[in-house]
Write a structure and sequence with these properties.
It contains 7 helices and 10 strands. The protein is of the alpha/beta class and 267 residues long. The strands form 2 sheets. It has a 6-stranded mixed β-sheet, sandwiched between helices. The chain binds adenosine-5'-diphosphate and magnesium ion. Adenosine-5'-diphosphate binds next to helix 1.
Length: 267
């Protein structure tokens, strides 16, 4: 088993000996899966997961979000088994927000559960709404087409960051957006990452998006799946669209692409 850990830092996310079957053990979706992400306070890190459709990426994210337990193995966040008090909220491709509530109420929802008074949670939520570029939309309902797809993803990111600023779990969050919006959202996410230093676990099918955003790219194979490769993205910390034109960017895209072809055809 590959151990991707290379220092003595504590793990913020720690999945070991994971196995998953959805049919009582007849077939295995995940086997011997290990996923260890170090806690780098005041820095965070951006981990991007790539893998063939159906290999179990969303399943892995649901473990981290505490929405599901594996058939076997341990899932720890901050060295504690995932439970009610250390759940992480998740940003999905669509439908992450509550459409019958306003943007402001969606973003401040987690603070309500934490028992914060309305004036204070509204103030904190408004700060976050401004940061994600939604000022002026806070009283609108968080639903399509009142808000665009990109705006709804901004709501989801604001809500999630306010609920749990340390870990952001995102399942193909920009997959349904048009390309221009998608590029804007990538840059927004980098900005927020540099500002708040969360650990981000991000699933995508887009190799260029993966290379642009990631510190490290983790590649899963076909089922029975596990992580088979970690590719470090040695691009500058501050990335702009110019970065995508650099030779090293192209090289990394090709390296990841070759690996994806390999895992798609390997047994
Ligand atoms: N709740 C479930 N019940 C039965 N099968 C499931 C369930 N969730 C996922 N699966 C199956 O497990 C496999 C992995 O699913 P998923 O984690 O969604 O993969 P990915 O996100 O990589 O496409 C797929 O074959 C899927 O059909
Ligand atoms: Mg999925």
């Amino acid at each position: 088993m590959a151990n991707f850990q290379d220092t003595e830092l504590k793990n913020i996310i720690d999945l070991r000996n994971i196995k998953q079957s959805y049919d009582g053990g007849e077939t295995w979706i995940l086997e011997n899966l290990e996923f260890l992400i170090e806690d780098k306070p005041a820095q965070g890190q951006f981990a991007v997961i790539l893998g063939p459709s159906g290999c179990g990426k969303s399943t892995v994210l649901r473990y981290i979000a505490g929405l599901q337990k594996p058939t076997g193995g341990t899932v720890k966040i901050h060295e504690k088994e995932v439970g009610k008090d250390n759940r992480v909220s998740m940003v999905f491709q669509q439908y992450s927000s509550l459409p019958w509530m306003t943007v402001l109420d969606n973003v401040s929802l987690a603070l309500r559960y934490k028992g914060m008074l309305k004036a204070e949670r509204d103030e904190k939520a408004m700060e976050m709404i401004e940061l994600v570029g939604l000022a002026g939309h806070e009283q609108k309902y968080a639903q399509y087409p009142t808000l665009s797809g990109g705006q709804l993803q901004r709501v989801a990111i604001a809500r999630s960051l306010l609920a749990n600023p340390e870990i952001l779990v995102m399942d193909e969050p920009f997959g349904a957006l048009d390309i221009g919006t998608r590029i804007q959202m990538q840059d927004l996410l980098l900005k927020l990452w540099h500002q708040f230093h969360p650990t981000i676990i991000f699933v995508t099918h887009d190799i260029s998006e993966a290379v642009y955003l990631a510190d490290d790219i983790y590649i899963m194979k076909k089922a029975p799946s596990r992580f088979v490769e970690k590719i470090h993205v040695d691009l500058p910390f501050n990335r702009t669209r110019e970065t995508k034109r650099e030779a090293r960017f192209e090289e990394l895209v090709h390296q990841v692409e070759d690996k994806m072809v390999e895992v798609a055809t390997a047994k």
